[in-house]
Amino acid sequence: MLPEQERAYNESLNHTGYEHGAYNQSQAQFKGNGGYAPEQPGMEVIEKKGKRTICGLATTTFALLVALILVILAAGIGGGVGGTMAVNNAKNSAKSVQNPATVTITATPTTCPIAASATVGSTTSSKSAAATSTSASTSTSSAIVVPTTGVTFLDCPKLNGQSTIVTLKSTTYTYATTCGQDFAGVDGKSPDIMAVISYSLHDCAQACASFNRNSGATICKAATFDSRLSNINVNLGTCWLKNTTGAAFVATDTETVAGRAGVILQSVS
User: Fold this and answer.
1) Residue 211 · residue 168 · CB < 8 Å
2) Is the separation of the CB atoms in 251 and 180 below 8 Å?
3) 183 DSSP β-pair partners
4) Most buried of the four, 97, 110, 217, 257, by CB within 10 Å?
5) Using one digit for the tens of pLDDT, what is the confidence trace for 1-28?
């Protein structure tokens, strides 16, 4: 470099302050200011700062992620609580259906309906009791006690010459009636087939007809009825079925005529 050029260069360095000594002083000040160059008049220092991160994510992104997680957790917790409450409500409803509550209702009707009801019930009960009593009384009073002593009704001597008719099913038996009549044995043989207890002349004739119907032959040809019940103990009955009419006879005393009658079978149709 030429001497003139070197002198001009040095003068320019002195003018800007970047002389060797000055440069060293500036470096010392630079180091004492934390490594930053001192501010110089007319100069602006631009500080560049790096972006802050959390777990490798920008602060805004991390905040949004945390908010989203909180929303999801809140929704899950709320849904779980709501579902649990719904299940409990359903269980309680089912229990209430299976075990319905018992409701006791106490009705207090007015005096008039109670009195009317009581009167009607009492009247009905009284009528029912009266009907039962009447029925029992009627049933008892309608029962017949069979007599063992005395005389049964026999319309003799008015029955003389009349017919006593007995019908069994479709068969009709006709008997001739004679008051005071009886039948004796023939050739020492008893005419009696059997003795029965009858309480009327018609019943005695029916016993004879029934005997023939059941035997299938005309064995009973006549019958004698006595209205005096004392014959039950003496002669074992009040009606005697006869197998013959050959020795018929008629009593003459008034008592026997009035209390005895004989029937003889006339026809069967």
Assistant:
1) no
2) yes
3) 248
4) 257
5) 556 666 666 666 555 544 444 445 545 4
